[in-house]
Amino acid sequence: MATQYKPKNILITGAAGFIASHVATRIVKKYPDYKIVVLDKLDYCSNLKNLLPISSSPNFKFVKGDIASADLVNFILVTENIDTVMHFAAQTHVDNSFGNSFEFTKNNIYGTHVLLEACRQITGQIKRFIHVSTDEVYGETDEDAVVGNHEASQLLPTNPYAATKAGAEMLVMAYGRSYGLPVITTRGNNVYGPNQFPEKLIPKFILLAMRGEPLPIHGDGSNVRSYLYCEDVAEAFEVILHRGEVGHVYNIGTNKERTVMNVAKDICKLFNLEADKAIKFVDNRPFNDQRYFLDDEKLKSLGWSERTHWEEGLRKTMEWYVANSDYWGDVSGALLPHPRAMMMPGGYEGSKEVKGMLDQFNNIQTKVAPISDSVRETHPFKFLIYGRTGWIGGLLGKICEKQGIPYEYGKGRLQERSSLILDIQTIKPTHVFNAAGVTGRPNVDWCESHKPDTIRTNVVGTLTLADVCMEHGLLMINYATGCIFEYDAHHPEGSGIGFKEDDTPNFTGSFYSKTKAMVEELLKEYENVCTLRVRMPISSDLSNPRNFVTKISRYDKVVNIPNSMTILDELLPISVEMAKRNLRGIYNFTNPGVVSHNEILEMYKQYIDPGFKWTNFTLEEQARSLSHPGATTRWTQPR
C-alpha cells in the first residue's frame, strides 16, 4: 500500500451541515495533531449545534463566511497555512433545485470555482483538494442493472441539483489537469443519521411519524435508493483523506437498496403505525430518477467497508430525533411534501441561541473576529455607494457586509460636484456604485410633473458622478433601466427576438424613460462606466412595496405582456463581481427569457395567496396604458 498522506491544516467547508459535521468531529477527535478550520455561512440546513462536541477542542476553529467570498477564502488559506481542503459546502436538496436552480448554480458551481481559484493562486501549498459530489451525477441507473455505476461511468444528470454538481466536477477535473491541483472527487449514495435537516426523506418521515401526521410519498414509492449511515460515511472520508490517490474518483456506496415505500414502512414499524393508514401518496417531482446504484469496489480496496446495518442505523436515528425533537426549531415548512427554500427557516445565525453559541465558539477558540478585522484592513476593495435609501442601494450594502467588503454610502448630492469630490477624497474607494435616481412616487407619473427635478438627478447627477469618477481613475457601476424599449416590427412580441446592448432605445412614452435613454447615450463617452440595465426588479422580499411582484399584486387591473425581469437576489451579487473585474460597457442586466404579468400572478396565487384574484385590462385600455413605462412591452436580451 502506498504511503499514507498526513495533512497538517485542513479547511472543511460546510461543516455546520450534516455529513461534514460528522467528518469534522471524527477528524478533530481522532487526530489532535491536525488543525481543522471550518468555514460555513450557516444556511438554513446548517446548525452550529452540530459542532458543539468539538467546540472546545484546541485543534478546531470555526469561521462564519461564504465560500463565494474570494477574499475571505484567500485570507483563510494563507493565514491558516491550509494544505488540505475538504469541500462539502453545497445546496443539496433536489426539490429546492426545481424551484430555485440559479441558487444552486451560484453555490455549487460558482462557489467551487472561487475555492479552486484561491487554491491555485497559492502555488504548491495545497497538497489535497477533496471535492464532495453525489451519485446523482450519473443519472438514472437501469432497473435491471446488476452492476452499479463505476467511477469511469458517463455523467448524465437529470435534475438541476445534479447538473450543478456535475458542472462543479468538471471544474475540479480541469483545475487538476490544467494547473496540477491535487484533486480527489467522491460520489456518494444517500446518507442518514443524527443531525440531518428534516427536508430529507428519513428525518422527515421520523418527525412526521412522531407528530402522528401522514408520511408523503412522491409518486408510487417505487423509486429505489441506497442509504449509508453517517458514521460509516465519515469513516470513508477519513480513509480517502489518508489513502486516496490524487486525480482519482471514489464512489461511497452500498449495494443494499430500498424503495421509498419500504423506507416508509420500516419507519412505521418503529413507531407501531399501520403503514396503509400512515402513508399518503402525493404528486411526484418534475423528474424523479428511478434508481441510483454504485459500484464501491474501488473504495473497498483502500480498506473501507460499510459497518452499520440498516435496522441498527435507522433505530439509532429514530432514537436521536425522539430525544432531540426541537433541535432545528420550527421545521414545519421542511415537512411539507414539496418543500422550497423560501419555506425553510431563514438560517440560524439570527437566533439568540446561535448568537450565543457563536460567542462561545469565539471565546473558546482563536477568535473569529480578528479574521474579519484583518480582512477589512487588508481588503483590496472598498466601495462607495450612492442610493442609500433606495432598494438596490440598501441591498448592495447587505451584500458587502455578507462578503466582508468595506463600504460606505455617499453623503454628497449627485448634482453637486464638490460634494462628490469630498466623498471620494474622504472615503478613498476603489469602486463607485450609482444606485441613486428618480423613478417617482408613487409611480413614474410624478416625473411628468417634475421634469427639472428628474433631469437634475437622472441626467445631470449621473453624468457628474461619472465625470468625477473618471478624473479620479475610478470605475462606476451604474444601475440603469430597461424601460427604454418597446416591442416593434424588428422585435415583435412572441418572436423570441430581444433587444441587445447596442440597440437604440425606441420608447419615449414617458419622461422618465426619456431621461434614462438620454443619459445612457451620453455615458457611452465615459470609458470608466459599466451600465447595467435593470428591468422590473423582483426579490424574495415580498414585503418590499418596490418589488415588482408585490407591486402588481396590489393593482386593481394589470396588463398581460411578456417582459424581461431582474431577480435581484441572483444578479446583484454578480454586479459586485463585475466591479471586482473592472468590467465596462452596457449590459442587459436581466434573467434569461420573459415572463408575463399573468404568469407571475398565477405563481403568486399558487405559492402565496390561493384566494388571490385579478383582472386584466381590455385591449383598448391596455393600448392607452402603454405610455406607462411600468406596463410597456420590452424584452432585453442579456449577454
Q: Going across the major beta sheet, what is the strand order?
A: 3-2-1-4-5-6-10
Strands, count: 22
Amino-to-carboxy terminus distance: 52 Å
Number of helices: 22
What average pLDDT do the residues reach? 85
The class by helix and strand makeup works out as: alpha/beta
Radius of gyration: 27 Å
Ranges with pLDDT <50 over ≥5 residues? 346-350, 362-377, 627-639
Task: Walk me through what this model shows.
The protein is of the alpha/beta class. It has 22 helices and 22 strands. A seven-stranded parallel beta sheet has the order 3-2-1-4-5-6-10, with helices on both faces. The C terminus is likely disordered.
Structure keywords:
single chain, 639 residues, alpha/beta, 7-stranded parallel β-sheet, 6-stranded parallel β-sheet, 22 strands, 15% strand, globular, disordered C terminus
